[in-house]
Specification:
homodimer, seven-stranded mixed beta sheet, 462 residues, Rossmann fold, alpha/beta, 15% strand
Chain lengths: 462, 462
Amino acid sequence: MSVKVLLNEDEIPRQWYNLAADLPTPMQPPLGPDGNPVKAEDLAPIFPMNLIEQEVSQQRWIDIPEEILQILYRWRPSPLRRAVFLEKALGTPAKIYYKDEGVSPAGSHKPNTAVPQAWYNKQFGIKSITTETGAGQWGSALAFACALMGLKCKVYMVRISFDQKPFRKMMMNVWGADCVASPSTQTQAGRDILARYPDTPGSLGIAISEAIEEAVTDKTGQTRYSLGSVLNHVLLHQTIIGLEAKKQLQKIGEKKVDVVIGCAGGGSNFAGIAFPFIADKINGADIEIYPVEPTSCPTLTRAPFTYDHGDVAKMTPLLPMHTLGHAFVSPPIHAGGLRYHGMAPLVSQAVVEGLATPKAYDQLHCYDSALLWARTEGYIPAPETSHAITAVIEEAKKAKEEGKEKVILFSWSGHGLMDLVGYANFMAGKLIDYPLPEDELRESLKSIEGLPKAPMVRSGRW
Amino acid sequence: MSVKVLLNEDEIPRQWYNLAADLPTPMQPPLGPDGNPVKAEDLAPIFPMNLIEQEVSQQRWIDIPEEILQILYRWRPSPLRRAVFLEKALGTPAKIYYKDEGVSPAGSHKPNTAVPQAWYNKQFGIKSITTETGAGQWGSALAFACALMGLKCKVYMVRISFDQKPFRKMMMNVWGADCVASPSTQTQAGRDILARYPDTPGSLGIAISEAIEEAVTDKTGQTRYSLGSVLNHVLLHQTIIGLEAKKQLQKIGEKKVDVVIGCAGGGSNFAGIAFPFIADKINGADIEIYPVEPTSCPTLTRAPFTYDHGDVAKMTPLLPMHTLGHAFVSPPIHAGGLRYHGMAPLVSQAVVEGLATPKAYDQLHCYDSALLWARTEGYIPAPETSHAITAVIEEAKKAKEEGKEKVILFSWSGHGLMDLVGYANFMAGKLIDYPLPEDELRESLKSIEGLPKAPMVRSGRW
């Protein structure tokens, strides 16, 4: 039985898919500090104009430049694999397919957008890119892309991860990037935080503030900032995952997908696999679509949809999204990529519409799933990916109970080879769960009080 | 321009290639403690009989059982990639192709033999496999294979690596294997060494002794030992690399390969890529074939061809090979897989015949090559792989000088994601070279004094 479906380079999708063109209810605009919609030129000090154009585009299909494809070919099209050995272990009639995004040089789906972002910046004449990173997946992906493009790359890495997870920093250095612990003394935002909280472990929100500050204060005008998730253009670049998956399923004659699953932190990995199938759902297809998050950071399952900042220092525009409040501090679960307080506006709106149905799982449950996966399928998943796997196993068991030969597709967002300490701690019984207590959620949500409201507008079609 | 060539599962080679059938000069037999050739039954307590049959087979092609293929399909056929960006950076007219063995679950070529070995053991009724590992590539590969096959796996890991490189141990644990530091108190061999040298960092030779002892002393008779390189059947299993490469080159119309390169520690990775091309060379093809080793462990370039033990405790039969002497203690270079005192008899005999021409490089030179690779091609190579890359770059530069459009093929034996500390130390200027001093070589070779000699028999055809 075939366990993987490959596409040749000439079969790669040549356009990205923009869900914004098809959402039944139009997206609400980002707002500036004055409460008015942000204009493209307001974003110009932060992003190059070609990416801003993608950010606000309503065009359904956007061409992928040939030069970007040439770089993506290193690992794309990525394999569509079938988890036949997990299926067998579960005794399920379900067929479990997954896109293996762990084959990229950085080991996750992140390079799918790092490469286009670096390329568009270079096209625009930019010489240097700043960014933030939590556990380091994004920072290493951007470092990789910048190395290939000959751009300077500066990564502000959340201090606790910088100290605890030195390997991602080493990867960035191998690719020639500069990686500093955040908060740092190199920015005003960093110095302010350090003055008040000298022992702070840092946060993604702080690191974003530092990276943006460095970009906008560079007097040469040749530095811009890059974000690894949340924004429309980032999600756009990731849709190549789902578009490839469609071609691959078609190639082996799978006519119908029943369930599509992806883990969701900022939302880019989920969007990548799911948006092309949400398009089908909008057009009448019967598909269940599940973004999966941790119970410790339950943005989609428990937080309101409203306007909030993307960072602690409130340097970003206000985005309409599910948010736990920008002051939210996530517990130290190992799935570092799922610890963000907000959620991509496009994903949030899809959930508001009922086009996607979020699920949340505890960390220990996810590690159980990851071990079962590794011992049947072989590959060791990232802790983020283990959240998707947990939902997959649940669906496969349900299919067994119902006696249905369902087709389940999910995004294997990355491998866990840089996350083995989490596995070791789990196996040693040292990990715990952190379901978010109701009072902590209420406390955290105070940080959005007084901000403009984004009404929950839904078409009512789902 | 296409940067990778894929094969579908139904295009996988269905037989392994056995070079022993074609070597112009027959191999000299392994010898037992009495100096007489070892008989198959002497090996029966150590290996299952089906693998012993492969070990002594003179059959040119050996069928790969379908069940093994089903497991190999997880990552095989592996991609044949073209390093177009490195070519461009070097300005070379050479075309550089490489087999990417980093795509396996364990991240190297090792699972190519771990899976068949586990499978044949299981077929033979074995329940438990013991082995040794240095830096952990082999131990993790066997742990992976045993997890899939439902076999117990016990790995003796050289203590210094066990302490310094905990991640490979964690990988083994994820796959359910038991990994202990060697020398341990669990075997007589280990206890003896610890009594004499309580602070020893351990060595591969000691770990082999421990693993063999545990296998042969298991009273249930259901435990066997497994080796990750050196032996004929191990090299046999790796030939799938080169056989796939041939099909892939054929697929894109490359009619002639000029240079084939692989790094060589015990010899299995080199054999995997090179043996199918050595067959062509025997049949008259004009191909340069280079095994590459470190100057700190110059087995092929500076050591004699003679009989020696594979381990320190002299538990293994005597093998005819290039050897630095079983008492050799390699300097602490980061390419842990290239620190073995001996070399596979098949590779050694091929070198004796002139069918392969060894090269050796210093560690720092190899790290320079690795960084150039990572910053042009993206993927981060293992330190072992960087030795092959160094030879590739040298050949590509030579092709430039000569103005020749050479086709260079090499085996990218694995990724370096578990070896980032070596990169960090290199970039921090903390690494040094260890070219083996002549007097140390002489001292080390004393351990083979008094052992039977294996004459340098060559056909004289090359």
